[in-house]
Amino acid sequence: MTIDVVQTESDTSPRDSAPPPVRSRSRSRGRRVEAALAYFVLTIGALLILGPFVVTILTSFRTSADMAVNPGLWPAEWTLDSYVTAFTEVPLARMILNGLFISTVATAGGLLASLLGAFALAKLKFRGQRTYFGLVLFTLLIPGTVTLIPLYIIIRSLGLIDSPWALILPLWTGSAFAVFFLRQHLMTMPVELYEAAILDGCSTPGVVFRIFLPLLRGPLSILAILNFLASWNDLLGPLVYLSSPDQMTPTVGLTYFQGQYTSNLPVILAGALVIVIPTTIIFLLFSRQVREGLAISGLK
Asked: Do residues 271 and 65 lie in contact, with contact meaning Cβ atoms separated by under 8 Å?
C-alpha cells in the first residue's frame, strides 16, 4: 500500500508534468529540419547518379528500330538482341580476357615497383634522398601525353607493337602517386620495426615483404583498384600500341559499334554494361580492405 502511494506521488510530480523548455523544443525542431534537408539533397544526388545508369540498362534491352519509333525511355518490347550482337559482331569475350590479363599483370608489377620505391624513400638513408623524392613529386605535374611519343619509340624499338606487353611494361615502373601515397603511410610506422628486424638477421627484402607489406594491406588495396580501373578503362594506349582485333581491349571494342554517321546505341550500352561487371566484382572483393585503408588514411 505504501508503494502505491509513492508511485502516485512520483507520477504527479511537478517536474515530470512540466512542459519541455522552449529552447529544447526549438533545437529539436531545427534538427528535424536539418535532417529533412540532408535527406532531400541526398535523394537528389542519388537520382542524378543513378538516373543515367537506369537509362543505360533500359536502352540496352531495346533495338535501334524501337528507339526510332518510340522516343520514350521504356522499351516497347524487351529483347536481348543487343547483348547477342555485342558478342557476335566483335570478339568481345576475347577482348575482355585481354583486358583482364593486361590490367592484372600491369597492376601487380606497378604496385611492386611503387612499394619498393616508397620503402626506399621512407625507411632507407642515402645521399640525395630528398632530391629523389622531389623528383617523384615533380613527375606528378607532367601530363601523360608529353611522354607518349618517346614511349612509343622505345616500345617500337623493343618490337612490342601489337603486343599486350606494350601496355604492361610501362606500368611496371610504378606511379608517382602510388610512391607518394605509400611513403606517407610508411612514414607513420616506427623505424624501430625496420631496425629490430635487421638486428634479428632479416634482410631488407624480407623486412619489406614480411613486416611492412601486411601493414600496408589497406593502402595497397586502394591503389590496386585505382590502377586496375585506370588500365581497364584506358582507351588511348590500346589505340596507339595495338592494331589487330584479337589483341584489343574491351574499351576499344565498344568503338567498333561507333559509325561515322550513325551509331548502334543499344549495342554500345549493352557492351558497356558487360565490361563493367569485372570491375564491379573486383571492387566487391576488395571493399573491406578499401574501407580499412580509407579509415587509416583519415579519408573516411
From this structure: no
pTM confidence score: 0.78
* DSSP 8-state symbol, 36: H
Alpha-carbon distance 205 to 220, whole Å? 17
Closest CA to 178 of 122, 234, 104: 122
Going residue by residue through the chain, which has 300 residues, state the pLDDT in tens, using 9 for 90 and above: 444 444 444 444 555 555 556 667 777 778 888 889 999 999 999 888 888 889 889 888 988 888 878 777 788 888 888 899 888 888 888 999 999 999 999 999 999 999 999 999 998 888 888 899 999 889 888 888 888 889 999 999 999 998 999 999 999 988 899 999 999 989 988 888 888 888 888 888 888 998 899 888 888 988 998 899 899 999 889 999 998 888 889 888 888 877 666 678 888 889 889 988 888 888 888 777 777 766 655 544
- Contact criterion met (CB below 8 Å) for 167 and 109: no
Helix, strand, coil percentages (3-state) for the chain, rounded to 5, are: 75, 0, 25
**Count of residues for the chain?**
300
Enumerate the β-bridge partners of residue 258.
263
| Residue in 299, 104, 119 with CA at minimum distance from that of residue 207 | 119
Query: Which burial class, exposed, middle or buried, applies to 117 when counting CB atoms under 10 A from its CB (0-12, 13-18, 19+)?
Result: buried
C-alpha pair distances (Å), 79 with each of 23, 64, 76, 90, 153: 61, 11, 10, 19, 47
Q: From the CB of residue 99, how many other CB atoms can be counted at a distance below 10 Å?
A: 27
DSSP type of residue 20: P
CA distance 179 to 104: 19
